[in-house]
Each structure stands twice: as C-alpha cells, then as structure tokens.
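pasting for ref
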Amino acid sequence: FANMVFGKLPPEKCPDNDRHNVDTIDGLILPTVTALAYAARDDADYVDGGGADGGGAEDAASKTAAVTRSSSVLEAYSAVLSGLIRASIRNDDSVGIDDALQEAAKKFGLRQMPSGARRDEMSACYLEGSVPTLLDMVAKYGGSSGGRTTTNDAWTGLLANANIGGENVHRGAVLGALLGARAGVENMPQELFDGLYDSEAIRKEIDDFVKAVLSAERRSEL
C-alpha cells in the first residue's frame, strides 16, 4: 500500500518483499480462502491448468498470495496448501488425509514427515518453522491415524495451538480452516460460532461468501 500511495505505482507493481515479514504464515490466510472457494467447484477446476478459465486451485492460490506480496516462496507454499485443503474437505474418514499430508510435506521440501505423535511445538512466523508444526498438528487433531476421529478434535487442536504461544494467531487460522473442513460444521462445537463477539456479522459474511462462490459455479455450468 505504501508503494501505491506514496510510490504511485500501479496495483500490479505494488507487491513488495522486505526479506523479513513476507515469507511468513500470515501470508497463507488469503490463499486459504481462495482454496476454500475452489472446494465448491468440480474436481477439474482443482487441477492446475484445468478449468474453463485455464486456472485451477493451485494457480489461483498462488496468484492470491502475489496480490500483496512479492514472494515465489509464498506462492509455492500457497499452491501446495490448496491441495491439502481440498483433501481436508473431500476425503471422508475412510480415506483420511494422511497421504495428503505426506504429499504436502514432500512438496514443501520437508525432511521429516508429519506425525501426530510429536508434542505440539511453538514456532515463529516464518514458513520454514511454522508449516512443519502446522502439519504435525493437523496430523494429530485432524488426521485418521491413531484413531483420532472424535468430533472435538478441532476444538482440542485450536485450544492447544492457542496455549502453545509463539506465532499462534495465523497458524491457528490455517489450522482452524483445515480442522474445520475435516470435521464439518455439524461436528464442530457450537461455542466456536456463537462465542465470537461479532458472531452474527461473521456468519453473514461467510454465508455471503458461500453464496457468491456457488453462484459463480452455477454460472459456469450454463
């Protein structure tokens, strides 16, 4: 925004990289919303390069990250995350997301594969530290391994994330999206919705988002 306001640059030239606060997990929030939007679309639209507009969830998530930040690293992480979000929404308990977690970890270039057996760890905001701990928590509270399929795992995972400390705010946002997608609204504790200060306004915003996405999908079918 400084580039736009003070530098008078066109919007497409405004994304910047200060080499410090850009390749961070808070940069995954908007791509997460984009990936959730694609969850309402046909499987063909999830394939990078698929879909009527030549895009896909991976491409769209990467482009979303690029709107405000100049970071090939963040764009790559956003693309991988979109696949994990898809699996979280589409895969039932018989399939689980263990394979999707392993695939994501490999694409992220992690040496250690996700495991729900590890203790929850504090992390800073940087992607190389926060994403491995995020995947471990998804495996622990949202995966099918170890028989952890109870409906309270999303609540337990979010509470654990809050209690760990560190950069738990934006990690919690991505974690919540993944765990919530796994559980489904009907299996989430009601206090997670009603307990929010602006619950009605947030509920309306979510409903409007869903309507917009579904309307776009119906238009594409015409």
